[in-house]
């Protein structure tokens, strides 16, 4: 995606609790002379800020706030499930008037993935390799279990919201029916009284 030199851009990731998130990014700066993006953005850093929801929905908790280079890797672990906000902003100190350069950002976010260090595995004997791979599989199983639990939580919340909405609709329909019947009875009584007053009945 593209981002202004002094602009902050955020993305939202819905992440289960106790989940490792790893992000890799690279920033390229627009060159006005060649009318293309340079291979990188030398001398430019990126502030990466990650906030997570807390028990109080209106508040956010900062999990990560750090300055990186024009390309780098950041990681954090979610403590509670919910929408995590990941924001990026360059550390450009130029005034807004002259900081018109646009940046191209390549971003790769991996949620709940644990990578094996193949060189470390090759340096160990076969037993250690099997142990490492087994631990990796156990981590993956735990991650899938957490994902399933999180999906069940979201499904339960959605079901409760749907039931509350249906209940509200039912009560509103009952109230509307009572109002219509009351208005009808009142109109009939008013017409009857009018006819009696005019001695038409």
UniProtKB/TrEMBL annotation:
Cellular component terms (Gene Ontology): endoplasmic reticulum membrane
Coiled-coil parts of chain: 120-147
Localization per record: Endoplasmic reticulum membrane; Membrane
Membrane-protein topology: Single-pass type I membrane protein
Record's keyword terms, sorted: Coiled coil, Endoplasmic reticulum, Membrane, Signal, Transmembrane, Transmembrane helix
Record domain GOLD: where: 8-111
The UniProt record lists the keyword Aminoacyl-tRNA synthetase: no
Chain ranges passing through the membrane: 169-188
Domain of life: Eukaryota
Stretch forming the signal peptide: none
InterPro entries with a match to the protein in the record: Emp24-like, GOLD_dom
Keyword Transmembrane: yes
Similarity annotation: Belongs to the EMP24/GP25L family.
Alphabetical list of PANTHER family matching this protein: TRANSMEMBRANE EMP24 DOMAIN-CONTAINING PROTEIN
Protein name: TMD11 protein
Originating organism: Irena cyanogastra
């Amino acid at each position: 995606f593209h981002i202004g030199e002094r602009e902050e851009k955020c993305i939202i990731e819905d992440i289960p609790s106790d989940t490792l998130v790893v992000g890799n990014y690279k920033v390229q700066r627009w060159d006005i002379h060649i009318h293309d993006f340079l291979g990188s953005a030398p001398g430019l850093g990126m502030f990466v800020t990650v906030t997570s929801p807390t028990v109080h929905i209106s508040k956010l908790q900062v999990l990560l706030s750090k300055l990186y280079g024009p390309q780098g890797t950041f990681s954090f672990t979610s403590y509670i499930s919910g929408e995590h906000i990941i924001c990026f902003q360059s550390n450009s100190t130029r005034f807004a008037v002259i900081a018109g350069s646009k940046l191209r950002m390549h971003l790769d976010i991996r949620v709940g993935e644990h990578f094996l260090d193949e060189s470390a595995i090759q340096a160990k004997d076969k037993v250690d390799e099997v142990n490492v791979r087994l631990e990796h599989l156990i981590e993956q199983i735990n991650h899938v279990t957490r994902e399933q639990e999180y999906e069940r939580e979201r499904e339960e919340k959605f079901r409760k919201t749907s039931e509350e909405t249906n209940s509200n609709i039912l009560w509103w329909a009952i109230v509307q029916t009572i109002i219509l019947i009351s208005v009808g009875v009142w109109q009939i009584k008013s017409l009857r009284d009018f006819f009696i007053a005019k001695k038409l009945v």
